[in-house]
Write a structure and sequence with these properties.
Keywords: Cell membrane, Cell shape, Membrane, Transmembrane, Transmembrane helix. The protein is mainly alpha-helical. It contains 7 helices and no strands.
């Protein structure tokens, strides 16, 4: 399949994740911070395509999340976080093919870093009330929720992307 098909699939997944994050997961009033389907989509994409493509995909997904309402933060914060998630998850591409535990660990590590970068940058720029013990609790809860969603989000996306991925990757 062509590059246009992969690009369309990715943008569709990104928009769906942003929509579900804003309309379903955000309003749930869960303790701590809500999960981020968008970071899971980026991590799943990167597990198949590698670090370079994952970083680019993360930046694009994060930038879209930065500018699409109801975004209430500085433009670029989510782009940075998702770019790091894509790069880090992509580094584990080969290990994730061989082991479910490696894939889960890569997603957990990448999402934890992305959540920490996004939340931490909010504190730095005065956009989040993350003083005291609130930041670690928010990061831990968001990562925990993301790990609960991982088996339902990451395998279907990686399977779909692998079907569309060329036989030889450029990363």
């Amino acid at each position: 399949m062509g590059r246009a098909t992969r690009t369309g699939l990715f943008l569709g997944l990104v928009l769906l994740a942003i929509l579900l994050d804003a309309t379903v997961l955000g309003p749930l009033d869960l303790p701590g911070a809500p999960p981020s389907l968008l970071l899971l989509v980026v991590a799943a994409w990167a597990l198949v395509t590698g670090p370079s493509s994952g970083a680019v995909a993360g930046f694009v997904a994060g930038f879209v999340a930065d500018v699409v309402p109801p975004a209430d933060h500085l433009i670029g914060r989510y782009a940075l976080a998702a770019c790091l998630v894509g790069y880090l998850a992509g580094l584990f591409r080969l290990e994730a093919k061989e082991s479910v535990a490696a894939a889960l660990g890569a997603v957990a590590l990448a999402v934890a870093l992305g959540t920490l970068v996004f939340a931490g940058s909010g504190v730095i720029f005065g956009e989040a009330a993350g003083t005291g013990g609130a930041l670690p609790v928010a990061v831990a809860s968001s990562v925990g929720y993301d790990l609960l969603l991982t088996p339902f989000v990451v395998p279907p996306i990686t399977s779909l992307v692998r079907r569309l991925q060329p036989a030889v990757s450029r990363d």
